[in-house]
Every structure is written in C-alpha cells, then in structure tokens.
Design brief:
- This protein has 220 residues and is mostly helical.
- It folds into two domains: 1-47 and 152-220, no CATH class; 54-149, no CATH class.
- Helices cover 66% and strands 0% of the residues.
- The protein contains eight helices and no strands.
- Helix 3 packs antiparallel against helix 4 (92-108) and helix 5 packs antiparallel against helix 6.
- The longest helix is centred in the first third of the chain and has 27 residues, at 58-84.
- It starts with a helix and ends in a 21-residue tail after the last helix.
- The structure holds zinc ion (ZN).
- Residues 44-45, 155, 159, 194, 198 line the site of zinc ion.
Length: 220
C-alpha cells in the first residue's frame, strides 16, 4: 500500500470526522482534522526500509528531495530566528515549525538507508527536546515515536494494535493543549486505518506482534 493511498484514506476519514464534529461544519476544522488524519495515516510507515521505494518514479523522487530540502532549511531558518531574536515570537512561528517538520518527514517517508533513518531520528530529537523544554508530554511522546520508528523492521511494531492507544495518547495531549475536542479519537481512528488498509495487501500485517507473528489479512 503506497503513501498516497494511506494519506488519502487518513485525510478522508479525518475530514469526515471533522465534518461530523464541527459545530457548523467550518472548513478550517474539517481541514485541520483532515491534516491530523493524513499525518496519522502515514505515521506507521516511518519504519524503514519502506516498500514504497520500489515504485518511485523520477518525478516523485525529485518532489520528495525538494520537500526534505525545503523542510530542513525552513527548520534551520526558524531555529535561527527563534535563537537570535528572543522577542520575535509571532503566532505563526509554531505553525511554521509544524509545517516544516511535516514536510521533512513526508520527504523522508520514501527514502531509505542509514542517513534517512538518522535524519528522521534527528527530527524526532528536535520534537522531543522542544516538548521537554515546554513541558508538553505528548510532544515528547511524538518525538520518541519519530526517533525509534525508522530503526524498526518494516510492518513491525508500528503496525500493531498496541501502538494505536499510544498514538491516541499523543493526539489527546494535543487535544488538551489546543482545546479542540476529538483530536485523540480522530488520530486513533486514522492510525488504525493504516493498519487495516495494509491488511488488504497480500503480505498482511502482524497486528499482535510480538505476542504472535501471525499475519492478519483481509480480503475484499
Ligand atoms: Zn504500512
């Protein structure tokens, strides 16, 4: 199952959840939940080496490399701005940080190898350090996930049902911080959508690993 499919499924489920959840169906709420869903729908495939790589076209490789370059350079620029101008803390800064981290991770999703894993972990370390600095435990949790995931074997621990409540806990922390109801549930549902979607592939998913290595499959 490729990244685009997971992203689409996650974003659609997230968007529908947002639509049901938004008091007056506000577009920004729907888009926000679609974003949460898309990210949660992709997160499980941060484990490497990704099977997605096989089908990479030249265009998508260029696209992903640009995402990494743009994401990492904006991270450096934003970090430098924050460091040198302590009084300069506009509201959009956090959103810009989040956007650059998502761009970097999206770009790294399809590459493979030691340096890819090291870069993903580096992004995780940045998240965890920032979370520690702010006392945001959910962000430390997300950072830990991003640090560890790339080093796990593909369709291993990140594709088990044990991770779903942990991912939900991260989402719930964000929910409490932003005061937006439903992020916890939405992130669990969309993370789960990834595992279920992978179960429709011939390889199946070891949903209960490490208790059993049985591969669970679904058929249409
Ligand atoms: Zn997967």
């Amino acid at each position: 199952m490729n990244g685009k499919t997971h992203l689409t499924i996650g974003a659609v489920i997230g968007g529908i959840y947002g639509l049901v959840h938004a008091p007056a169906g506000e577009l920004d709420t729907i888009l926000f939940f679609a974003g949460i869903g898309g990210f949660s729908g992709l997160a499980a495939d941060l484990d490497g080496p990704s099977v997605l790589t096989r089908k990479l076209t030249k265009v998508s490789r260029i696209l992903h490399t640009s995402l990494i370059v743009v994401g990492l350079s904006s991270l450096l620029l934003l970090g430098w701005l924050t460091y040198t101008q302590a009084s300069f803390r506009p509201d959009w800064l956090l959103a810009a940080f989040a956007a650059s981290i998502v761009a970097t991770l999206l770009g790294l999703l399809v590459s493979r190898g030691f340096w890819r894993n090291a870069l993903v972990s580096l992004v995780g370390i940045m998240l965890a350090v920032y979370g520690f600095d702010q006392g945001w435990y959910w962000l430390i949790g997300l950072g830990a996930f991003v640090i560890i995931a790339p080093w796990l074997s593909h369709r291993g621990l990140t594709h088990t049902i044990w991770i779903v409540p942990i991912w939900g806990w991260i989402g719930f922390g964000l929910e409490q911080q932003l005061g937006i109801d439903g992020i916890g549930i939405a992130s669990m549902l969309t993370y789960l959508s990834h595992i279920v979607a992978d179960m429709f592939t011939p390889a199946g998913v070891k949903v209960l690993y490490p208790i059993t290595k049985k591969k669970f499959k679904l058929k249409l």
